[in-house]
Design brief:
CATH architecture of the largest domain in chain A: 3-Layer(aba) Sandwich
Distance between the termini of chain B: 25 Å
Largest sheet of chain A: 7 strands, mixed
Order of helices and strands of chain A: EHHEHEHEHEHEHEEHHEEHEEHHHEHH
Number of strands of chain B: 6
Number of helices of chain A: 15
Largest interface: A-B, 29 and 33 residues
Distance between the termini of chain A: 41 Å
Strand content of chain A: 5-15%
Radius of gyration of chain B: 16 Å
Strand order of the largest sheet of chain A: 2-8-7-6-5-3-4
Structural class of chain A: alpha/beta
CATH architecture of the largest domain in chain B: Alpha-Beta Complex
Shape of chain A: globular
Strand content of chain B: 15-25%
Largest sheet of chain B: 3 strands, antiparallel
Helix content of chain A: 40-55%
CATH topology of the largest domain in chain B: Sufe protein. Chain: A
Oligomer: heterodimer
Structural class of chain B: alpha+beta
CATH class of the largest domain in chain A: Alpha Beta
Number of strands of chain A: 13
Number of helices of chain B: 5
Number of domains of chain B: 2
Helix content of chain B: 25-40%
Radius of gyration of chain A: 22 Å
Shape of chain B: globular
């Protein structure tokens, strides 16, 4: 049975062009980009090529504004802690939202221990942050605003350009975690107007363990990793060059293929969403109906728990993700779903489908064929379903 | 998460799913808010569990535990069934991941609660099913008398806000 992989937010398979670029690099280059000799020079050239590829995807004014990291988590840590240290004399107040990724929320948790104050804004039922609420939260002490571009659990795309205008008006640095969005939808740092933006290669057919932080020229940010002069003195440590080459190739492929990928993904997601809603009663679709990632569909199925649903789908060769507390490892309901006002019991039954490039209509139809039966099996086993349906 | 083959078998082919309409005892424990909830129905003949059925809302482990404990209890005397412990169920399932041990507590609690409900009914203490207040408390994360860090699976002897081994913030049952 061929797998139907609908968990592209956890990891994507390598794009053939990415694989080719990485293999070619492995076979030909082994030098250190910092070595000023004939072995190091090809390495330095590969590093700068990848930097230009990423800068081009983001429409950055200068490739030097791209700093490679070990992934989205490091980029988020660097943005938040780096600005906090860089602007420690100016103030100690940071604004964020309740539905950020843990790498943002836990970076801020660390800063709280160091006497920074954090305002975490509520979102509406779709997960949207209100730019007016951001403005209201700004104080003379505010040094940083961090709001994600698109949420990785419900897909909602935030009004980043509007929040950036608020930030600029009050001269506050603005960071956006664009890990779930970059390489999937157009991400243009000029149009967005952000100072800092995080991305990760494994979200768009690049390798895991590599990402980047876009740092607009003039942004006051201290390094997260101290050491040598790599990455224009912004990120010390010998570069993960093989990963960076993969990220560069993935960025180039994303920029080239996005016009074809987007309509295809949108149509497949629509087929999945409409099909599930037509076949399964009593479900709640999460995220914004329009401002949503084109490849992500999140739905909460009443009366049942997500891990068992996920496992029975896997038994049919369908790989999805769940936000149930039982499967999370933390045994805690998703803060994102709770943040949008979902009850704890309903949050337990949440599945997240993220579509990839290789998914076909036939794959979606297979999900639609097997999922209603699985849901019914679990509902028939559920003590809550019985109570609600026999009065 | 790695479930044993026995867990997977009982999860995919659960035994004794359903209700007993004229049950002699019913035990209900857990809460969907916490992620799992189980109802156990028993039919008692001559002090023996002639039939045991369950309904469960929960993860793969919770369903496998329900299936296993009802299988183990069937045919046993009430005294024997009261002696089935969480550890017995976990052992019969070929083990459970440490952060899923609380699911085995749920199973034993539900079974014992059903037997207690039967005894109370027989003694005329309750007219029908157990009242809300009589339900067994179900403490999540407390498997076999111990808590485990859900991140690094280190044993934790007491409730702490952080795991001393990996530094992760620890979830607690009653913080929501």
């Amino acid at each position: 049975m061929a797998l139907i992989y609908l968990d592209n937010l956890s990891a994507t398979p390598l794009h053939p062009k990415v694989k080719e670029a990485m293999i070619q690099h492995l076979e030909t280059v082994y030098g250190n980009p910092s070595s000023d000799n004939q072995v190091g020079q090809p390495a330095a050239a590969a590093l700068e090529k990848a930097r230009s590829q990423v800068a081009s995807l983001l429409n950055a004014a200068d490739p030097k504004e791209v700093v490679f990291t070990s992934g989205g988590t490091e980029a988020n840590n660097h943005a938040i802690k780096g600005v906090a240290i860089g602007l420690r004399e100016k103030g100690r107040h940071i604004i964020t939202s309740n539905i950020e990724h843990k790498s943002v929320l836990n970076s801020l948790r660390t800063l709280r221990l160091l006497d920074y104050r954090v305002t975490s804004l509520d979102v509406d039922q779709y997960g949207l942050v209100d730019p007016a609420a951001v403005e209201k939260a700004i104080t003379p002490e505010t040094i940083l605003i961090s709001v994600m571009l698109a949420n990785n659990e419900i897909g909602t795309i935030e009004p980043i350009a509007d929040i950036a205008k608020v930030a600029q008006k009050h001269k506050v640095i603005f960071h956006t975690d664009a890990v779930a969005a970059t390489g999937i939808i157009p991400v243009d740092v000029q149009k967005l107007g952000v100072n800092l933006l995080s991305l990760a290669a494994n979200q768009f057919y690049g390798p895991a363990g590599v990402g980047a932080l876009y740092i607009r020229k003039g942004t006051p940010i201290w390094p997260l990793l101290d050491g040598g002069l790599q990455e224009n003195k912004r990120r010390a440590g010998t570069e993960n060059l093989i990963g960076i080459v993969g990220l560069g190739a993935a960025a180039e492929a994303a920029a080239q293929e996005m016009p074809e990928r987007l309509p295809r993904l949108k149509a497949l997601k629509e087929r999945l969403a409409q099909g599930i809603m037509a076949r399964i009663q009593e479900i709640k679709v999460n995220g914004h109906p329009e401002h949503c990632l084109p490849h992500l569909f999140s739905a909460s199925v009443t009366y049942i728990e997500g891990e068992s649903l996920m496992m029975l789908l896997e038994d049919e060769g369908i790989i999805v993700n769940t936000r149930s507390a039982c499967a999370s490892g933390s045994l805690r309901a998703s803060h994102v779903l709770i943040g949008t006002g979902l009850g704890h019991a309903l949050a337990q039954g949440t599945l997240v489908f993220t579509l990839g490039q290789d998914i076909t209509e036939a794959d979606i139809d297979r999900v639609l064929k097997v999922m209603p039966g699985i849901v019914q099996t679990l509902r028939d086993m559920s003590p809550i379903y019985k109570k609600e349906h026999t009065g | 998460m790695a479930y044993s083959p026995i867990v997977m078998d009982h999860f995919k082919n659960p035994r004794n799913v359903g209700e007993i309409l004229d049950a002699d005892g019913l035990g209900e424990v857990g809460n969907p808010v916490c992620g799992d909830m189980m109802s156990v129905y028993i039919k008692v003949v001559d002090n023996r569990l002639e039939d045991v059925k369950f309904k469960t809302f929960g993860c793969g482990a919770a369903i496998a535990v329900s299936s296993m404990i009802t299988s183990m209890a069937k045919g046993k005397t009430l005294e024997e069934a009261m002696k089935i412990s969480n550890a017995d169920v976990a052992k019969a399932l070929g083990g459970l991941p440490p952060n899923k041990l609380h699911c085995s507590n749920l199973g034993a609690d539900a079974l014992h609660s059903a037997i207690k409900n039967y005894q109370d009914r027989k003694a005329g203490k309750v007219m029908f099913f157990a009242a809300e207040a009589d339900k067994e408390p179900h403490i999540k994360g407390a498997g076999a008398g111990k808590c485990y860090c859900p991140y690094c699976e280190t044993k934790l002897d007491e409730e702490a806000h952080f795991c001393m081994s990996c530094g992760q913030e620890l979830p607690h049952e009653h913080d929501h």
